[in-house]
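Researcher: Please translate sequence to structure tokens.
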Amino acid sequence: MRDEQNKKSKPQKKTAVRLLKWGLAVIIVLIVLVFLLIPVVVSSETGRRVILSKVNKSVGGRTDFADLSMGWTKGIRITDLSFNDDAGWAQVQVAQIVTKPNYGSLILGNLSFGKTTIDQPEINLNLKNKPVAEPESPGEQQSIPMEIVPATLIINVVVNDGNLKVTDSKDRTVEVSQINSSFNIRPPGQQSLLEADMIIADTNSKINASAQVTPGSKTGWSLKGTSGDFSVEIDGLNLATLAPILELAKVDLQAQGVVSANITSAVIDGRLENLTANVKATNLDVTGSALKGDKLHTNNLDAEVKMSQKGQAINIDQLRFRSDWAQAEAAGTVPTTFKSLNDILQPDSNYNLKGNFNCDVAAILSQMPKTIGLKEGMLVNSGRLSGSVSTFTAAGKATISGQASLTDLAGTVDGKKLAISEPVAVAVEITGRKDRINFDKANVTAAFAKINAGGSLEQINYDGQVDLAKLQAELGQFVNIGPYQMAGQLSGKGQVSVKDDKIAAVGSSTVKELRLSSKEGITASEPAADISFNINYDKKSNDLAIGSLNANTSLGQVNLKDAVVPLGKEAAKPVKLLCSAQKINLEKLQPFLVLFASFPKDMQLAGVAESVLSVTSEKDTYRIFTDSTKIANFKLASPNKEPFQQTEVQLMLDAEVNPGQKAINVKNLELLSPQIKIKKGQFNKTDKEGKTTLQGQANLEYDWSGVSSFVSAFLPQGLEMAGQRKDTISFSSEYPVGHTDQLMANLSSKAKIGFEKANYLGLNFSPTEVDIQIRNGLLDIAPFSSSVNNGQVSFAGRADFKQKPTILKTPGPIDVAKNIQINKETAEKLLMYVNPIFANAVNVSGLANFNCQKLSIPLAANAQKDIEVIGTISVSKLQLQASDLLGQILSVVGGGAQGEVITIHPTNFALQNGFLRYDDMQVDVGNNPINFKGVIGLDQSLDMMVTLPYTASGRTVRVGSQTEGNRITLPLKGTITKPKLDTAKLLEQQIQQQLEEQIRKGLEGIFR
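Model: Translation complete:
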């Protein structure tokens, strides 16, 4: 039975094995077919269209090629490849590209394309048609984390008979032809080769470069660990032809001239060895943004270098530089680093060096006045900077000796001759014995300074004196060293120590009789200031550690202790400053604030300040913090104003500043004093996407009786306010970066201003609240009314800060004043400009009304003549005594205004261009009408006519009664404070009127 079952199972097993074999065979056949068909598909017209479709969808232009063929052994060949970008600025034509990629290496992640040959590539770039790239918004940039998989770069590219043509935005064209190059880039540890030859077509200038380098297998593609050799040869290159290429590379440099060069060198483990270079140029002109518009020129330039390095020594066989304005030569053996300076000063050392230089200062300054900072309009016609350096061994010690001097510096400015009175000389002598290096001499001498130094390398002692007035008189003739005139004596002494990578300095300085003056005649002085310091510079961490810095002056004392100041972005430590100030005399500080901080010259400042301020940093942001700044007996006063005085002022500040981004963030600002409190003050300023954004807010508590004197310089003269206030102010503005003049035009703010009482020009205001809003530069003063002198004042206004000049206007007709009781002060300071009868009047009383049809007040300073007011004014129940003008008018016929009730009828007037005009203002003195007509100037001038209540026949005119004969009209001259009625005209008018009357009567008799 079992045998039968075994017989049945054997055929089934054979069938399964047979099926498996056939299945594997089919799969293998399919794989082989796919493998064989891929080149066929890729090389077909269908494959060409598919590839071009994919490529053209991913590039900003159109790509095409005539033929593409692929073979597993022959590689890939593309013929007649072309590309034209959509903007029309880039065109590429390639006759043929042949490459034999290593498919296995590509699958494993290694970029190995085998040998790639590019035949007759032609590239044509027209920068005039290149689209301007839009910068990405910082807010749109996102950091996407990804894992970088290292790949081995293997490239072997040969370019045959290439051509590059570039046309810049000014239609200048350069063509580089006959480009033949070979790049064979191998993995680190293997030798890579580079060869390139080309010709600048217009001038047939030839450029050849070649290199054979082997990067270290451990260090990779970096200079360290790399060995090989390279050479560059340039024959007659016209620099002007490179302008389009420089524009393409976005290099702001313009150069002219013809340059030839031959440079060869070997590199061993990252060090240049056996360097030979020869560079010659003729008619060389170089300019660019770095030279601030200056142009450096030389007819001839010749530089030759031949040097080699061995160990820690550099052998200079020849170092020579010559141009029209400078020559320099050097030869000898020097150490590679400063650390090996000790070796050159050993008695048995083989180091030696001799060199010299000579420079025509006048030639350089005339070509580069802006770069060097020469005064505008100055011509330097002589001056020479020369020097030498040498090393030698004598009497058992090695010596380095060097000297430099600036002589015969002279010139003219505006026809005035200038010259330094004495040469500026520097002399250095360094000697060495065994392990000790001494600075026997390090001196600087000039008419304005003497500095002497000496000592060992570990500790150098120095002392010096500088006459600041002579410094400015000598060098300030030629170079702009500041906007201020200087005088005083500066002296200092101390020690500088050098050990390993650290430099320490300890010393003191004294300034006596310091005096600084501006062109405007502002002067600040300091009789004596003593400064002591202890600082350390660490080269490795690139920071300055300030152990102590103390300044004792007549202004007060400032101390800095245990501070750290990084000297670069790569510094290891952040900023750390803790500054304390004691007994700062604000009265003595005030002249310096006027000179440097635009503090008002006529404003007095007094008090004694003390503060502890800290500055720390995190990345590029600095934090400024103080919670212990106090000013005792603070006083601030403006001329003819009550001073603002506080027994103590406290300041607390927490702010962040980012200079690179020009950002300021005041997190908290608090100012506390008996009469002013600023709490929860916040302020933020940022620059982003070409816009500056400002935002701020604060809670204010203040007493107007104290604040009025503090802000008196910014308020109308004579305005006095009183009352306790608690207000909140907020503001924001956004404007183009750098255009602070547009801050107000884009300002938005909201505040409420008020007082319990106020007095202005005799107007006594009751409690008043005013809502003020600014929306995107549009100021709105909400309508408000206030009880004033038992009457009512109303006002509303609007101003658009986008308009220049900015004008405050009323929205429409307003009854500004209703039944305001007038007094002597309102008469003298307001109504006198309406009618001169109020000049020098006493015991004034009455009710005034003013309806304003139009009001326009420029908000700019000194714009009095641009004020425009059109309206109607009237005064009732007016009584006054001792009015000069009324006395003159009524005395004509022996009358007077004593006890009379005066009425000024509603009168239309216009104030324009600094003059107030009206055609008829009737003033009733009792029952006698007086009429005024003419012009009153804000400069107090008068040009008016006054019609008296009398006729030439001597009759008195009464209000409401008919008048026979003409009333007397007289000119009114003088000023509003001293009006003068021209009574001399009275007799003329009477004679003329009598003559006219007699003629009239005679004619009537004739014709009866």
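Researcher: Any highlights?
Model: The first strand starts at residue 61 and ends at 64.
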